[in-house]
Amino acid sequence: TRNPVAKLLLFGATGDLAQRMLLPSLYGLHADGLLPDGLTITGSARSAYTDEAYRDFAKKALDEFLPEDRKDEAAVGGFLERLFYQAIDLSDHSSFGPLAEKVGDVSGGLAIYLSTAPSLFEAAITGLESVGLAGETVRIGLEKPLGYDLASSREINDAVAVGFPEERTFRIDHYLGKETVQNILALRFGNSFFEPVWNAQGIDNVQITIAETVGLEERAGYYETAGALRDMVQNHILQLVALIAMEPPARFDGTAIRDEKAKVFRSLRLMTPEEAPNCTVTGQYGEGAVKGEIVHSYTDELGKPSTTETFVAIKAHVDNWRWQGVPFYLRTGKRMAARRSEIAIQFKPVPHSMFGNRGGLLQPNMLIIRLQPEEYVQLLVMAKEPGLDREGIRLREVPLNLSLDSEFAGTRRRIAYERLLLDLIEGDQTLFVRRDEVEAQWTWVDAIRAGWTANGMKPKAYASGSWGPSAAIALTERDGVTWQDD
Ligand code: BG6
User: Fold this and answer.
1) d(C-alpha 411, C-alpha 428), whole Å
2) Where is the Glucose-6-phosphate dehydrogenase NAD-binding domain (predicted)?
């Protein structure tokens, strides 16, 4: 049951995420009449803005980041009227008093959106609590990074739990807000024909790729302390693994779905230090050309030497009955050849080919779920090439195509944050990450990092605009598997 709050408090209200995503998303919800009537939004950050100045700031962000066809003067005006502002220094306890005053009465419900450095979480929660912004009617949304290893994530979770029990804590993984990611559930559990082959008998391997063309952007301070494993694998890629690998939940609700995902995380095989060099590859981008444009190396952008990985490839295993022996190949990187998020499910080959050698090579079926930039689902199947075939029937791999882009062409694709902010405001936890999930994710990640340390592994250089270090190709080729679409 949805239970909307009357107020929203946005920390980090002047940051990059707020400008690009949060403000445009809240505006989108407002323009479509989806925000509760009278919902006020108090922005908060270090800068000293008046309400008026913050409204100007927000207007500029909307001008810059809203698509033209979404700009509507009246709607923008109405949206800006919801906005208020109060400066805060999270590390200064005394600045919470004025904030509480500005927010005012929270008996009608308050949702807080907190995105801050892990080191400030505890101070933020203590501050909120001390001024009465953590009671029964208040819920909190937490943006990553939620720590940098299991110990620090536990500390954050403990600190949060003092003010906010789990049912009022909403941990954000924006991948879960993406339509195409939710579509994995629709595909798997809304159709009958995948499920019988969705296991070690039917599937040979699973590949998950999140490739980006962007580099460091303006996030050197954060990224240097994170690296690709923490930034992308611990959260987004593992969530995709869970949606692919989980058992069918009984209901579409927060408890049922998160129970099943958590079981997958707990079933991830922990890597031993001996396995790390063979089962993982790390890389760091050097110079190169991305989409025809020459770009600098990571260390040049950073301005100093670094051993932070901007690419990682991993051979992972889900140790349970369904997935025994099925490798999950995972990879993500910055400055790669193309922007592409994709899941490729490679099915087992037919047990016997009646076509002999004459038919050409039979390719095992593959299901490709392209999450972005395009949205499609493709099943690669063998078909007969037209012809008289006097020397034997000829087969060729062809795609059965479901283009979500064209099938749902008239429907606007919402930003992931629209969905997540609305769920936070209305109190639906289904698409948020539960504490046991996060901690199991970190446990698995920490084992990998321990292996890197034990073996003194350093990232291998790869050219910007490539698909990562060649060792990443060798990682699958050793098993006779080729990364889809290289
Ligand atoms: C963020 C990472 O969580 O996800 C970024 O911190 C990354 O490094 C981003 O660029 C990718 O998100 P999307 O939605 O563009 O795939």
Assistant:
1) 23
2) 10-183
Q: State yes or no: is 236 an active-site residue.
A: yes
Query: Is pLDDT at 485 greater than 80 in this prediction?
Result: no
Q: What one-letter code names the amino acid at 262?
A: A
Q: Give the mutation target among 172, 216, 231 for probing the ligand 1 site: most ligand atoms within 8 A of CB.
A: 231
Mark 324-352 as b/e (b = at least 16 C-beta within 10 Å): eebbbbbbbbbbbbeebbbbbbbbeeeee
* Positions at the binding site for NADP(+): 46, 89-90, 144
d(CA 220, CA 298): 10
* C-beta separation of 306 from 228 below 8 A: no
| Strands 340-347 and 280-290, bridge-based pairing | unpaired
* ipTM for this model: 0.99
pLDDT at position 436 is 98
Q: Which residues are annotated as a binding site for substrate?
A: 174, 178, 212, 231, 334
| H or E stretch at 348 | none
| Closest alpha carbon to 402 in 426, 428, 377 | 377
342 touches ligand 1 (CB under 6 Å): no
Could you tell me if the CB of 212 is within 6 A of ligand 1?
yes
Find the 334 Cα to ligand 1 centroid distance in Å.
Answer: 10
For residue range 325-340, list pLDDT tens digits in order. 999 999 999 999 999 9
CA-nearest residue, atom 8 of ligand 1:
231
| CA 39 – CA 51 distance, rounded (Å) | 16
Q: Looking at residue 264, what is its pLDDT?
A: 98
